[in-house]
Amino acid sequence: MDHPKAVLFDAYGTLFDVYSVGLLAEQLFPGQGQALSVLWRDKQIEYTRLVTTSSEGAHYQPFWELTRASLRYACKRLGLALTAEHEQHLMNEYRHLSAFPENREVLQVLRTRGIPTGILSNGDPQMLGVAVRSAGLEGLLDHVISVDTVRKYKTHPEAYRLGVQALKRPASQILFVSCNAWDALGATWFGYRTLWVNRYRLPFEELGTQPTRTGSTLDDVLSFFE
Amino acid sequence: MDHPKAVLFDAYGTLFDVYSVGLLAEQLFPGQGQALSVLWRDKQIEYTRLVTTSSEGAHYQPFWELTRASLRYACKRLGLALTAEHEQHLMNEYRHLSAFPENREVLQVLRTRGIPTGILSNGDPQMLGVAVRSAGLEGLLDHVISVDTVRKYKTHPEAYRLGVQALKRPASQILFVSCNAWDALGATWFGYRTLWVNRYRLPFEELGTQPTRTGSTLDDVLSFFE
Hints:
The structure is a homodimer.
Chain A: E1 6-9, E2 16-17, H1 22-28, H2 33-53, H3 63-78, H4 84-95, E3 98-99, H5 103-112, E4 117-121, H6 125-134, E5 143-146, H7 157-167, E6 174-178, H8 181-190, E7 193-197, E8 213-215
Parallel strand pairs in A: 1-4, 1-6, 4-5, 6-7, 7-8
Antiparallel strand pairs in A: 2-3
Helix pairs in contact in A: 1-2, 2-3
């Protein structure tokens, strides 16, 4: 099979480590940092689906707002008193998530080889701009695409279609990379070639569809170009 | 405000106790029964959303199949060896979930008052038929409505619309009852009057919309008719 002609990356969980907020969470709520960061993330994803499924955009809220709403929910659920100061602190941390260490080099190799790259993310444009800059990835990505344009979150086909439109190529020529199994599944359903980066050694979704390949770090992107 | 003219109930989690499989799960996998029943349920709901969001029905699988898929995922995730025999045993248990104890009486009171009632559920028709019979609720419900007709799960508006169509009344005249916060939210967004039965003392969703009322058991349905 031909090499992919372009590569799209998911952002949250794939380029940026959403669990890197756990350290601050642990400082603010000793003994609950991990539970909070996991529930916060799960609820954030759940909220993207609730607002997307429930209407054709009428209940859409930007990712930043859903991130705040899910933080509030997670704290209530865990019985943690979230002061306005805590909230601001945690949200600010979420704005500046750590990048996974191998990202830069993989993006640089792709750049050297002349492969167009982009982010296709649930994040809203402002969040993505700050995250890309603060992770030092500026200048290494040709496209930063937010689903905010269509007001529908992945795995909605309209969200995935934005990548095809930006890269002006059919999905079958584009490699879509995600560490989120549900995202790799949705992208595969949409028609992308897919790499599921299984960072946490989880099972893949049991819905009868497999990603094109499975890897363990972002380095495995390069195996598509060998 | 006028009394509601009809009452629709969610099935799984509301009339039927989805965690009643935990006892068998604990026998099969000692020490893991609760974790399995919680993850199984969470994943089942997640799968309804993934297949609904990802397409206009193209990736739909009936609830029975999603229930099986989510059981398989949950066992893999927890590192439990699910034999074919275990799977059959657990799925059979899911087919015959316990009903919450107060259900029969509430349905009987509504019947006495001449209020039309129905189930509006993600379950497929066969599952619902067996569950209603095995819970002894046959003859107490005027409508048993499955989203299978539209191949989209709640919280998709087409799924909620089935209730309006069956009862031939506007949503604002119908009380929708669910123990699932996301379902009470979706139904409220759609336009139903809603009762969230908060059996597990959880926070409500933080998405800016509240159910019409919140209760703690199904008995609270009757407060709408006082």
